[in-house]
Structure formats: structure tokens, C-alpha cells
Amino acid sequence: MFGVMEWIRVIAVLMLIIFLANYSLSYLNRFMTKRNTQMKIIEKLVIGKNSTLSIIQVCSKYYLVSSNENKSEIIKELAAEEAAAIQLEQKLVQEAREIPRALAVKNKTSFIFQRIVRKAEKRKKN
């Protein structure tokens, strides 16, 4: 029969195995998920249960692609004007996402500044 020390040893070894497995899997994940910088899915619209319509960027060209569970096909290569409009929209969306972050940083900074000013005023009074 196992004693208390043996159970503690078994639990410690199991925890070590889990930790090592987690660390090695996260280390291997760095090499398995390489970023593809030549292709991006710009926008995806779900049309039905199994079908989507996507705008895909391959190098500097944009394609309108229809896909379902059986096949994917290029419907149209977008013209340069359409691609420029898509790029402009992407830039505007990215800037719109950054505005709340900037405001949050500004509000946090002003909150911290107000706390410092209040503490300084309290020290002057004392």
C-alpha cells in the first residue's frame, strides 16, 4: 500500500510531466504555425449554412472567392480601383480600432496624473 509520501511523490511527478508536456507543445507550436505574409483573407461573408463569399489578397492582387463544402472557385479578380478602395477601408477600420485604445491610455494617464496631483496637494497641506 502507498504511504502519504509516495502519493505526494506520484502527484509531484505527474505535475512535472504535465508542465513539461505543456512547455514542449508551446515551444513546438512556434515552429508549426508560420505566418503566411503572401496571402490574407480580407473579408468573409457567410451566405448560407455551408457557403461563404470571401475577398482574398494574394501578393498584390485581390480576388472574390466563393466557397462551400465541396469546392472553392475564383469568381472575379478585382480591378485596381476596387483593390485601392479595399485597402483604404482596411486602413480606416484599423484606425477606428486604435481610437478606443488611445482614449483608454489617455484616460488612464490622466487618472494617474490626477492621483499624483491629489497626493501632492495633501502633502502640501500637511
How large is the share of residues in beta strands?
15-25%
Strand count, sense and barrel status of the largest sheet are: 4 strands, antiparallel
Total count of strands: 4
Strand arrangement, major sheet: 1-2-3-4
Average pLDDT number? 81
- In DSSP terms (H or I, runs of 4 or more residues), the helix count works out at 2
Number of domains: 3
The structure class reads alpha+beta
Shape: flat
The level of helicity is 55-70%
Low-pLDDT sequence parts? none
Give, in order, the helices and strands: HEEEEH
Distance between the termini: 69 Å
Q: Calculate Rg over CA atoms.
A: 27 Å
Model description:
The chain is an alpha+beta fold and 126 residues long. It has 3 domains: 34 residues; 43 residues; 47 residues. It is built from 2 helices and 4 strands. The chain is flat and about 70 Å long.
In short:
The chain is α+β, with helices and mostly antiparallel strands and 126 residues long. It has two helices and four strands; from the N terminus they run αββββα.
